[in-house]
Amino acid sequence: MDKLEKALQKAREDRERVLAAAMPPLEADPEPPPEPVRTMTRPLSPTELERHRVVVRSGKGDNIDLFRMLRTKVIQQMESANLRTLAITSPQYGDGKTTIAINLAMSLALDVKQTVLLVDMDMRKPSVHEFLGIEPALGLSDYLLRNVPLSDCLVKPNVERLVVLPVAGSLHDSSELLGTPKMARLAAELKSRYPDRIVIYDMPPLLTQDDTLAFLPQVDGVLLVVRDGVSPIAQVRACAESLTGRNFLGTILNDSRFSA
Ligand SMILES: Nc1ncnc2c1ncn2[C@@H]1O[C@H](COP(=O)(O)OP(=O)(O)O)[C@@H](O)[C@H]1O
Ligand SMILES: [Mg+2]
User: Fold this and answer.
1) pTM of the shown model
2) Residue 118 pairs with which residues in a beta bridge?
3) Contact between 79 and 221 (Cβ < 8 Å)
4) 99 CA distance to ligand 2 middle (Å)
5) Is the CB of 99 under 6 A from ligand 1?
6) Which of 50, 98, 99, 203 to mutate to test the pocket of ligand 1 (most atoms within 8 A of CB)?
7) Is the model's pLDDT at 256 over the cut of 90?
8) What per-residue confidence (pLDDT) applies to 24?
9) Are 156 and 39 contacting, i.e. CB atoms less than 8 angstroms apart?
10) Residues 225-246, buried b or exposed e (16+ Cβ, 10 A)?
11) 246/81 Cα distance (integer angstroms)
């Protein structure tokens, strides 16, 4: 092991120690399996939806058909391989992950065959709640760090068959939470509990947070969002390489200058 490798190894070990100290002990987790949502329905703000390009719900915008097409493709791929959970990531911030995750989740929820759970996994820059115009008191980080019951963290917007697990507040140092055993257990639980539910994870970027990649084995499929004219080709290649051989389903070209 050379000096650099040793230093990296030590940094990794230090980080794991800090994290282990911050996390509640796993065996002390008294929580029963997640229950169905008991929270009240939250009405969404049409103005906020429109401002954040949540076109599927607002019914306005040129891209509704594109999301219908995306939904059809996603459903086909998921049904043919019996996939139930899907992560949406991209090289960097600003590529359109959240925009696509929310529109896709709403589009899937329009299909009566399944319910959809949309999970905000970006604890550093959570924005699902902002796009939807809701202010959650509790969210994923409260479940992971404070043992708050999951059912208290779930939000039911007034969109049929859609449930949201938001993040309340942002946690700058919590990105490593995605790689913890508790998060892995939650992902397994969310997948197995309801057979007719699709779980969409709105992930952090792939290239700026190493635990994004660490979490991806917990999901059935991964979609990579690439922003036309913004994502550098070298970064797209780096992402494709790190996803190859895993559960990589395909790439979505966002904000394309080409029409469908
Ligand atoms: N296709 C698009 N056309 C125009 N603006 C977009 C498009 N996709 C995303 N945006 C805008 O770009 C910004 C970043 O999008 P966001 O979904 O938050 O990216 P990420 O989740 O990857 O950080 C937001 O202001 C969003 O409204
Ligand atoms: Mg985002």
Assistant:
1) 0.84
2) 164, 200
3) no
4) 7
5) yes
6) 99
7) no
8) 40
9) yes
10) bbbeeebeeebbeebeebbeee
11) 14
Q: Which two tokens stand for residue 233?
A: 């080709």
Determine if ligand 1 sits within 6 Å of the CB of residue 95. Answer: yes
Pocket test residue of 48, 51, 53 for ligand 1, highest count of atoms within 8 A of CB: 53
Q: What letter does residue 180 receive in the DSSP assignment?
A: S
User: Picking from 4-13, 158-167, 186-195, 200-209, which range would have the lowest pLDDT averaged per residue?
Assistant: 4-13
Cβ–ligand 1 contact at 97 (below 6 Å):
yes
Return the higher-pLDDT residue of 210 and 249.
Answer: 249
Q: What is the mean pLDDT of residues 230-253?
A: 91
> In this structure, which CATH number among 1.10.300.10, 3.30.450.20, 3.40.50.300, 3.40.50.620 belongs to the domain 39-254?
3.40.50.300
Domain boundaries defined on the chain: 39-254
Helix ranges (DSSP H) in the chain: 3-22, 46-51, 55-58, 64-81, 97-110, 128-132, 140-146, 150-153, 181-193, 210-215, 233-243
Confidence at residue 46, expressed as pLDDT on a 0 to 100 scale: 82
With a cut of 90, say whether residue 206 has pLDDT above it: yes
CA 95 to ligand 2 centroid distance, Å: 8
Atom of ligand 1 nearest to the CA of 63: 1
**Which ligand 1 atom is nearest residue 125's CA?**
23
Question: 101: exposed, middle or buried (C-beta count within 10 Å: 0-12, 13-18, 19+)?
Answer: buried
Which tokens go with 94?
Answer: 């600003």
| Alpha-carbon distances, residue 60 vs 42, 49, 55, 133, 147 (angstroms) | 21, 10, 6, 17, 40
In this structure, what token pair is assigned to residue 96?
Answer: 């359109």
